[in-house]
Specification:
single chain; two-stranded antiparallel sheet; mainly alpha; 4 strands; two-stranded parallel sheet
C-alpha cells in the first residue's frame, strides 16, 4: 500500500510494496515443507484458493483488488476519475463562493447580537475553573488558519481510529485507499486524502499542515483555502492514477501529503523569500523557493528512476496545482465567481420574498 507521509514534506509510499508493513509476515524462519497428501476435489475447501497474504496471525483481511488491467482498457478507466476530478473541483469552488457569501451575511446580521452577548457576559459573575471558558480561550488564541485546519485534523484522526477496528478493514481498504486497479475509483480519490494507517504517518502530515495553515489562510482566506485543499486532494490522486496506469505499477495509496504539497507550493510561490527549516534540523534555513525546487527535483528524479518509497506523481501533481493556482488559477477561478454569487443572492432573495 502506498502511504503518503510528510516526514520531508513528501507523500510516502511506505515499504515500496503494494501492502503496508503490517500486512506482511515478519520474524518467521523458513522451514522445510512437509509432503502433503493428495486430496480429492471434494476434500478441498474454498479457503485453499485464497492467497497466503491472509494469515492467522494477521487480523486484517486480504485486499480484494482487481488485476492490473490491460493498457487500452486501463486508460478507458481513467475517464470517470477525470470527470470526477473536474466536477469535484468545480463544486468545491462553487460551494466555497456561496460559503463566503453566507459568512459575510451572517456577520452583518450577528453584529448587534454579539455586542449584546458581550455586554451580558460582563454582567455575569466569572466562574473559576470553567472548562468551557478555558476551551474558548484556547480557541481564541489560535490563528484563523489553525482554526480552519482543526476540522481537517479531527477528521483525519477519526479515520485513523477507524483503521484500528478490524471489522472495518474491508471498508477502509475499498473506500479510503486510492488505486486505479480497484473496483471503486472516484470516492477514494477524496477519502484517501483523510486516511492514514500509522500514527507517525498521521502526525507528520498534520504537523506540516498545521505549520503552513496560518500563512496559507492569510493568503487565500478560509473559504478559498478549503476549496483549494479539497480540490488538491482529488487532483493529486488523479495524477497518481495516471502515473500508475502509464507505468503499470498499480497499488493503493493513502495520505494527505498530495493536498499538503499544494498548500506548500502555494505559500512558496506567494512568499518566495520566506525562510523555512527542516523540523529536526532547525539550524539550517533556506528560502521557500529553494525548498520547492528541491522537492520538485527529488520527486521528478524519483518518478523517472522508478523509486518506490514515495508516490512522486502525487507530489508533483499537488505541487503543480499549487503553483498554477497562485499564478493563474486564482484569477481564472476565484476572481470570476461574482456571477455565481449574484445568482445565489437572487435565489435567496426570491426565496425570502416567497
Amino acid at each position: 500500500m502506498a502511504w503518503r507521509s510528510c516526514c520531508f514534506l513528501f507523500r510516502l509510499r511506505e515499504g515500496g510494496s503494494r501492502w503496508p508493513h503490517s500486512f506482511h509476515q515478519r520474524g518467521f524462519k523458513k522451514i522445510t515443507r512437509k509432503p502433503e497428501l493428495k486430496k480429492t476435489p471434494e476434500e478441498i475447501s474454498p479457503t485453499h484458493t485464497e492467497p497466503a497474504i491472509q494469515s492467522r496471525q494477521n487480523p486484517f483481511p486480504r485486499l480484494d483488488l482487481q488485476a492490473p488491467p490491460t493498457s487500452p482498457r486501463a486508460f478507458g478507466r481513467l475517464v470517470r476519475p477525470f470527470l470526477f476530478t473536474v466536477g469535484f473541483t468545480g463544486s468545491s469552488f462553487a460551494a466555497a463562493s456561496i460559503w463566503q457569501y453566507e459568512t459575510l451575511q451572517s456577520r452583518v446580521r450577528s453584529f448587534f447580537d454579539e455586542a449584546k452577548a458581550d455586554w451580558m457576559e460582563k454582567l455575569r459573575p466569572q466562574k473559576r475553573g470553567d472548562a468551557r471558558k478555558e476551551v474558548n480561550q484556547w480557541w481564541n488564541s489560535l490563528s484563523e488558519g489553525q482554526k480552519t485546519v482543526t476540522g481537517i485534523v479531527v477528521i483525519n484522526f477519526l479515520v485513523f481510529c477507524c483503521w484500528r477496528i478490524p471489522s472495518l478493514q474491508r471498508v477502509m481498504i475499498r473506500y479510503f485507499t486510492a488505486n486505479p486497479a480497484s473496483k471503486v475509483l472516484c470516492a477514494p480519490m477524496i477519502l484517501s486524502t483523510f486516511s492514514h494507517f500509522s500514527f507517525f504517518h498521521l502526525a507528520t502530515n498534520m504537523y506540516v499542515l498545521w505549520s503552513f495553515s496560518s500563512s496559507a489562510v492569510s493568503i487565500l482566506g478560509r473559504e478559498q483555502f478549503m476549496a483549494v485543499y479539497l480540490s488538491a486532494g482529488v487532483i493529486s490522486s488523479f495524477f497518481s492514477y495516471v502515473c500508475k496506469t502509464l507505468t503499470g505499477r498499480f497499488g493503493p495509496s493513502l495520505g494527505a501529503s498530495g493536498a499538503i504539497m499544494t498548500v506548500l507550493a502555494a505559500v512558496c510561490t506567494k512568499m518566495p523569500e520566506a525562510k523555512l527549516a527542516i523540523v529536526f534540523l532547525p539550524m539550517f534555513t533556506f528560502t521557500a523557493t529553494h525548498a520547492l525546487k528541491a522537492i520538485v527535483a527529488i520527486d521528478t528524479a524519483g518518478l523517472v528512476l522508478g523509486w518506490k518509497i514515495f508516490d512522486h506523481a502525487a507530489h508533483l501533481g499537488g505541487a503543480a496545482f499549487g503553483v498554477w493556482y497562485m499564478l493563474t488559477g486564482h484569477e481564472l477561478i476565484w476572481r470570476k465567481r461574482e456571477s455565481l454569487v449574484k445568482l445565489w443572492h437572487e435565489l435567496r432573495t426570491r426565496g425570502r420574498g416567497g
